[in-house]
Design brief:
This protein has 664 residues and is of the alpha+beta class. Helices cover 31% and strands 28% of the residues.
Length: 664
C-alpha cells in the first residue's frame, strides 16, 4: 500500500514538473497572477527609461531592456475593469468605435485628429478596420520634431494622408501576425510591414507595438511607440530612396558597381542596409579609401558587410543581437549610451522604409576583414611589436601594396619571448629586421582548409621552405602553432602564430654531431645505411618532414652492454629499433595537449605520447629536450630507447595458446 501511494505521489510530482517546464514561468509569478484574480494582465515597466510594455498576458517574466532591469505590475486586461469588493477585473467595458477606443487607450490628440477628418463617419460606423495609433508621448515627440503646433490639428483633413497610412482594412488581430507580414494601408500604394521577433517584440514599420488587440465595435486598435510618417512609407525601391537623400553617394556608387545592387533591387526577400554617409567615408585615410575603391574584391566585401538578409527593426534590439550579412558574416547590434550601435558604429534615428527593405544611417564605415589590408589587420589584432619591426625593415608600404601572400605574424607573447638583445637588434637594425620579417611571409594565399601535413610554402625573395603540419584541432608551421587562423584580408591571408619562426638551416646529422651525445644513434644510422637507404637518406636529406625521438648515448647505455651489443650487431633488429623512433609527420611538443594520450604510428610500431605534470612521455621514455628543428623535420631527445617489442598495445593471446607481447 505504501508503494502504491509513493508511486502516485511520484507520478504527480513528475507531471507537475513537466507542466512547469513547459510554461517556463516561476512559481512565484504564477502565485502573483492567481492572487490578482481574473482578467488581470502583466505590464512590463522600467521608469528610468520610460518603458511600458502591455503584454496582454497573465504571466510575464521581468528581464533587462538595454541593461536596465524591468519589473512587472498588473492591470486590467483590455476591455475589463475592477469591481469594488471583487478580486481581479470582473467588470466588462462596453465596446465602442475605433476613435473612442483610441481615446480610451490614451492616444487623445490622434483620436482628435481622426474625428476632425472626413474619415470620422466611417471610423465610427463603417466596416471593420485596423488602426495603429501613436501613444500620446510618441505623437507629441513627432509634432515637436516636425514643428506642428497643436492648433494646426483642428482640421484632420490637413493630415488625411498621414491618417490613412495608420489604417488598414479588416480587423487584423495579433494572432494573425507573422514575420514580415505586409498589409496595405489606406494610403494608396503603401504597405505596412509587421514583424515578430524572438524577444517577444512586435513592430509595424519598425515601430514597437506597445499595446495590442484593443477591440472596438468596428475594428481593433493597436498602440505603437511612433508615427507612421509618410517620409518613411514610400512604396519605393530602397536604393532609389537612398539616392534621393543625397548623403550616400560613395556607398551607392560602390553598391551599383558590385553584384549586390541588382540582387537587392529584384529580390523577393527584404533586406536591411546599414549605409555609411559620405562623411563617414571621408573620415577614412585617403590612401585606404583609394586602395579599397581600386580593389573589386575588397569593395564587394565591404558593401556586403553592410547588408543583412532580413529586416532588422531597431526597437527589437533590447540586448545583444546578431544579424547575418549577405556574405554570411555577423554584425552585432546592441544598446549604446546614445542609442543603437552596430559593431562600434552609432546608428542614427533616421530610417528609410522601402518596398524591398529598410535603410539605416551609420556614422562610421564597417570593415570586414576582407576589406582590410594585412597591415591594417596587424594593427587591429594588436600585433604592434611585429608591426614595428616591419616598419624598421622598411617593408610597410611594399607589403601594403603586395597581393596574394600569406603572413605568419608572431603574437605579442611570442615576440617578447625573444631576449631583450634580440628584440633591440630587430627594432634598430634594418637588415636584421628585413630578414626576420621575410622569414614570416610566403608567396600565395594559404587558408587552413587548403593545407595538408608536410605541405611546403616558400618565403618571399629568398624562397626558404616553411613546412605545414595538421594536428587534431589545430595547425602548425615549422616550430609554431597557428593560434588564430584564416584572417582573409584584401591582399592576402593573416595567421597569428605561437612562436617566432626559425626556418631550419642545418641538417639533423650536423646538429647531433655538434651536440656530441648522440654517437650511438649516428653509428646506428651508418650501420643500417645498406639495409634501409631511404631511412638513411631522409635523415640527411633537406626539407624532409619527419619526427625523430632520439635517445642520447646515456639512454642507449642504460640497456646494458650485452643488450646494446646485441642491438648493434643485429642489423635487422637494429633497423626495427631505429624505425620505431621515426614518425612520418612533424610533431611539435606543443601539439600534445595535457592529460591526453596520443597514439602515434612510427615507421615500425605504434607508440603512446602523453603530456602530464609538465613532462612529455613517449611510452616509458621522457622528453629531455624538445623541438630540435632541422632540415629533416623535428627531433626530440629522449632518455630511454623505444625497443620495438616494448609497444603500448600490451599482450595478446596467439594461435599456440600462449599469451605474448605483440605489437599491432
Amino acid at each position: 500500500m505504501f508503494d502504491g501511494h509513493f508511486i502516485k505521489i511520484l507520478t504527480l510530482s513528475v507531471m507537475l514538473g513537466a507542466t512547469c517546464a513547459v510554461r517556463k514561468t516561476p512559481w512565484w509569478n504564477v502565485n502573483n497572477t492567481q492572487r490578482e484574480g481574473p482578467n488581470v494582465c502583466a505590464v512590463e515597466v522600467n521608469n528610468d527609461i520610460n518603458y511600458n510594455y502591455y503584454t496582454e498576458n497573465r504571466e510575464w517574466n521581468p528581464r533587462k531592456i538595454c541593461g536596465k532591469q524591468t519589473s512587472v505590475r498588473y492591470e486590467c486586461c483590455a476591455g475589463y475593469y475592477r469591481v469594488a469588493g471583487h478580486s481581479g477585473c470582473t467588470g466588462v467595458k462596453p465596446l465602442i468605435d475605433v476613435i473612442e477606443t483610441a481615446r480610451r487607450v490614451g492616444s487623445i490628440k490622434f483620436a482628435r485628429l481622426l474625428e476632425t477628418s472626413n474619415l470620422a463617419e466611417e471610423l465610427r460606423n463603417g466596416p471593420p478596420v485596423t488602426v495603429f495609433v501613436p501613444s500620446e508621448e510618441a505623437f507629441d515627440t513627432y509634432l515637436r520634431i516636425k514643428g506642428i503646433l497643436p492648433e494646426w490639428l483642428l482640421d484632420g483633413n490637413n493630415y488625411i494622408n498621414l491618417i490613412a497610412n495608420h489604417i488598414a482594412d479588416r480587423r487584423i488581430l495579433s494572432s494573425h501576425w507573422q514575420a514580415n507580414l505586409l498589409i496595405p494601408s489606406r494610403l494608396q500604394g503603401n504597405v505596412l510591414r509587421i514583424n515578430k521577433f524572438s524577444s517577444g517584440m512586435e513592430t509595424v514599420n519598425c515601430h514597437r507595438i506597445v499595446r495590442k488587440d484593443q477591440f472596438s465595435t468596428n475594428g481593433v486598435v493597436h498602440v505603437i511607440d511612433g508615427v507612421l510618417d509618410l517620409a518613411l512609407a514610400e512604396n519605393s525601391d530602397i536604393i532609389e530612396l537612398a539616392a534621393k537623400d543625397g548623403r550616400f553617394g560613395i556607398f551607392l556608387r560602390a553598391l551599383e558597381n558590385s553584384e549586390l545592387g541588382s540582387r537587392i533591387r529584384y529580390s523577393d526577400v527584404p533586406c536591411t542596409i546599414f549605409a555609411p554617409t559620405d562623411d563617414a567615408f571621408r573620415h577614412l585615410p585617403k590612401q585606404q579609401l583609394d586602395e579599397m575603391m581600386a580593389n573589386p574584391g575588397a569593395l564587394n566585401a565591404l558593401i556586403a558587410y553592410h547588408i543583412v538578409t532580413h529586416p532588422v527593426c531597431v526597437p527589437n534590439v533590447i540586448s545583444e543581437y546578431r544579424a547575418t550579412t549577405i556574405q554570411q558574416q555577423e554584425l552585432t547590434l546592441n544598446c549604446g549610451p546614445h542609442g543603437t550601435i552596430v559593431n562600434q558604429a552609432n546608428l542614427k534615428t533616421e530610417m528609410y522604409h522601402g518596398k524591398n527593405g529598410l535603410l539605416y544611417i551609420l556614422d562610421r564605415v564597417l570593415f570586414p576583414d576582407r576589406a582590410k589590408s594585412i597591415m591594417e589587420s596587424l594593427k587591429e589584432e594588436g600585433l604592434l611589436t611585429f608591426l614595428g619591426i616591419i616598419r624598421t625593415a622598411g617593408l610597410e608600404e611594399s607589403l601594403r601594396r603586395l597581393q596574394h601572400f600569406t603572413m605568419f605574424a608572431p603574437s605579442e607573447t611570442a615576440m617578447h619571448s625573444l631576449s631583450e638583445q634580440q628584440l633591440v637588434t630587430l627594432q634598430r637594425n634594418q637588415k636584421s629586421a628585413r630578414d626576420f620579417v621575410l622569414n614570416h611571409v610566403v608567396t600565395g594565399t594559404y587558408f587552413t582548409d587548403e593545407i595538408s601535413s608536410n605541405q611546403v610554402a616558400r618565403t618571399l625573395e629568398v624562397g626558404i621552405p616553411l613546412r605545414f603540419q595538421v594536428y587534431r584541432g589545430t595547425f602548425g608551421v615549422e616550430n609554431a602553432l597557428i593560434v588564430k587562423a584564416d584572417k582573409g584580408c584584401s591582399n592576402g591571408v593573416l595567421h597569428v602564430i605561437s612562436h617566432v619562426l626559425h626556418p631550419a638551416k642545418e641538417s639533423l646529422d650536423y646538429i647531433l654531431r655538434r651536440e656530441g651525445n648522440f654517437s650511438i644513434w649516428l653509428d646506428a644510422m651508418e650501420r643500417i645505411k645498406g639495409v634501409q637507404p631511404d631511412i638513411y637518406n631522409n635523415f640527411h636529406r633537406a626539407n624532409s618532414s619527419c619526427t625523430y625521438f632520439i635517445p642520447s648515448d646515456d639512454a642507449f647505455r642504460r640497456l646494458g652492454n650485452v643488450k646494446l651489443r646485441k642491438l648493434l650487431e643485429d642489423n635487422n633488429y637494429l633497423t626495427k629499433t631505429v624505425k620505431n623512433h621515426i614518425v612520418d609527420n612533424m610533431m611539435l611538443s606543443e601539439s600534445f595537449m595535457p592529460n591526453l594520450q596520443y597514439a602515434i604510428k612510427t615507421k615500425e610500431n605504434t607508440v603512446n605520447v602523453v603530456r602530464k605534470n609538465d613532462k612529455i612521455l613517449v611510452n616509458d621514455a621522457t622528453f629531455v629536450k624538445s623541438d630540435i628543428l632541422n632540415k629533416a623535420g623535428v627531433a626530440h631527445e629522449i632518455n630511454s630507447v623505444l625497443l620495438p617489442e616494448n609497444c603500448p598495445r600490451g599482450y595478446r593471446r596467439t594461435r599456440d595458446g600462449f599469451v605474448r607481447r605483440m605489437c599491432i
